Each structure stands twice: as structure tokens, then as C-alpha cells.
């Protein structure tokens, strides 16, 4: 097969016939279906637990149960979205050195099976959302609407694309607050937005480095970015995120709410986490998949564990 054959074929052609043999995967169907759900990325949905932790409700079994149900609902919704995105992007994914091994792009999972599974997961996610407060259902519905808009248009609009990705993280935190019926702190909203923008921009930087000359063919919007531009944007968001979080920990309303200023001891951990991530992006070419960093990078894991431990000490002990 000529190297350009995949690019020349219209997207509809992939619906009508299986992918070329060189893309087919030897893995079993159940394993391929599970991989298509991207279970590693469910770690992103742990963001729903942030309101539980910072609202000091982590010792309330009922609140913990509602929060975990919310995580499950969002995980199913996210997997439904991943299936839809992989269906829509399978032709581009076959040009990517890593994504071409994804189950749908490789042919291990058929388009029909992926579509059916995606619809089923979406229905199940909404059904679970009905068991939680109405605000949570609105967040799940909003997440689906955001992802549809991203797939159809927003991913092709410069800068808007990274804001759309960041909005997905913000929705998760808002959903976590809605699940346990607590108001979301303005500080938590701001810090989540800035951190999510940082991660989205770092992902773009990693894609530019990894794909090099093939970047535009895989993701056309990358033509609007350059390494220098993304580096500047990353610097702005990372610095602003650290500043916002630092101010939050020592703000008068924060100290009054928690009756302590111990949260300030978590600031060095946040700075280290951002620095470590920047190092992985710049020196190791990682950052394209934040969940992979979380699951594989030991310093990041240790830093996160210490951060949670210090937050628990600060907010739950006297």
C-alpha cells in the first residue's frame, strides 16, 4: 500500500470497509473493547472528589457515596465520548505514531460496535446521573454538549480549542460539588481553570514535539501554534495558577473558613508538580497524555500523595 493511501481515502470509506491489514491489531475483542474505553483516563474524573475534600465532607459516608457515584457516571460519560472521538478521528489517528494503535484506528474494534457501545455508555451515564441532585445531571449533559461542540467545531478554532479542553475539567469539579450539594468556591473554580489550561497547552506542546512535520496532518489546528507561542502561553498559565493557588491558601476568607492557614504548606508541592510536568514535557517529550504521567511517573505520584496528606492534615486535624 502506498504511504499516502490512508490520507487519500475519504472518511466515509472507513465506514464501508475494514482498515488496511497493516493497521489490524492481534488483541482479543474483549481486551480491545476495554482499551477503547480508555480506562487510564478515568483518573481525570478524580477531579470530582476535590469539592468533597475541600468542603471537609470526606468523613461523611453519604457524601463519599454520592461523590463516587458521580465519578462512575462521569467515567462512563467520558468513555462514551472517547469512543465517539475515536470514531470521528480514526483516519487522522492512523497517521499518528501512537494513536494508530488505538482499537478503532487499528481495526480491532469495528465502527458499528464502537457506536453501539458508546450509545449504551452514554445512556447508562445519564441514568446514574438521575440518581444524583439535578445539578449533577446538568453537568453531565453539559459535558456531552461541550464534547460534541469540540468534535464538530471547537477543536479547529485556535485558543478556543484549549479553553474547550479546560472547560471539561472545570465541569468535572462543578459536578463534584453538585453531587454532594455544596457551593463551589470561587478559588477552586479559578485554580481548576488555570491548571486545566496549563495541562491543555502542555498537551499541545507535546504534540508539536512528538509529531513534528506530521503535526498538521494529524491535528490541523496545530498549524496555528508554534513551540515558541505555546511556551509563552504555558509560562503565563503556570505562573498565574501558582499565584492564584498561593493567594487562595492565605486569603482571609480561606483562613476564616478552615480556621487555619496550614494550606500554605501545600504551595511548594503545587509548584513542584508543575515544574515536574514541565520537565517531562520539555525534556522527555511527555505531557501529551496527563493520565500516563500520573500513572507512570513516580515523583509525580509521590508528590500528589504528599499533597493530599498535607491537605488532610491541614483541614481535618486540629
Task: Describe the structure in brief.
The protein is an all-alpha fold and 318 residues long.
User: Judging by the overall fold, what is the CATH architecture of the largest domain?
Assistant: Orthogonal Bundle
Helix content: over 70%
Rg over CA atoms = 20 Å
Order of helices and strands: HHHHHHHHHHHHHHHH
How many strands, what sense, and barrel or not for the largest sheet?
none
The N- to C-terminal Cα distance equals 68 Å
Count of individual domains = 2
Give an overview in words.
The chain is mainly alpha-helical. It has two domains: 39-184, UbiA prenyltransferase (Tetracycline Repressor, domain 2), CATH 1.10.357.140; 185-211 and 224-318. It is built from 16 helices and no strands. The longest helix is centred in the N-terminal third of the chain and has 33 residues, at 61-93. Mean pLDDT is 85; it is low at 1-25.
Amino acid at each position: 500500500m502506498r504511504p499516502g493511501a490512508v490520507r487519500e481515502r475519504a472518511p466515509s470509506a472507513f465506514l464501508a470497509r475494514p482498515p488496511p491489514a497493516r493497521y489490524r491489531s492481534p488483541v482479543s475483542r474483549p481486551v480491545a473493547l476495554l482499551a477503547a474505553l480508555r480506562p487510564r483516563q478515568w483518573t481525570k474524573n478524580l477531579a470530582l472528589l476535590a469539592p468533597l475534600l475541600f468542603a471537609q465532607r470526606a468523613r461523611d459516608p453519604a457524601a463519599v457515596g454520592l461523590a463516587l457515584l458521580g465519578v462512575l457516571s462521569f467515567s462512563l460519560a467520558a468513555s462514551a465520548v472517547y469512543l465517539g472521538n475515536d470514531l470521528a478521528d480514526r483516519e487522522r489517528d492512523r497517521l499518528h505514531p501512537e494513536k494508530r494503535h488505538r482499537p478503532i484506528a487499528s481495526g480491532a474494534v469495528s465502527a458499528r460496535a464502537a457506536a453501539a457501545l458508546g450509545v449504551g455508555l452514554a445512556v447508562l451515564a445519564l441514568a446514574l446521573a438521575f440518581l444524583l441532585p439535578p445539578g449533577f445531571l446538568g453537568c453531565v449533559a453539559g459535558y456531552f454538549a461541550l464534547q460534541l461542540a469540540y468534535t464538530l467545531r471547537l477543536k479547529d478554532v485556535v485558543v478556543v480549542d484549549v479553553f474547550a479542553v479546560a472547560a471539561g475539567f472545570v465541569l468535572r469539579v462543578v459536578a463534584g460539588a453538585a453531587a454532594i450539594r455544596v457551593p463551589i468556591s470561587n478559588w477552586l473554580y479559578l485554580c481548576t481553570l488555570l491548571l486545566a489550561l496549563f495541562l491543555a497547552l502542555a498537551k499541545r506542546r507535546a504534540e508539536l514535539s512528538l509529531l513534528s512535520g506530521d503535526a498538521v496532518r494529524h491535528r490541523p489546528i496545530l498549524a496555528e501554534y508554534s513551540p515558541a507561542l505555546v511556551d509563552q502561553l504555558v509560562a503565563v498559565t503556570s505562573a498565574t495558577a501558582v499565584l492564584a493557588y498561593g493567594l487562595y491558601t492565605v486569603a482571609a476568607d480561606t483562613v476564616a473558613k478552615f480556621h487555619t492557614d496550614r494550606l500554605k504548606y501545600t504551595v511548594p508541592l503545587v509548584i513542584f508538580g508543575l515544574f515536574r510536568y514541565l520537565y517531562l514535557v520539555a525534556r522527555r517529550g511527555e505531557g501529551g497524555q496527563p493520565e500516563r504521567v500520573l500513572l507512570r511517573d513516580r515523583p509525580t505520584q509521590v508528590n500528589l500523595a504528599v499533597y493530599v496528606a498535607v491537605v488532610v492534615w491541614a483541614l481535618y486535624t486540629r
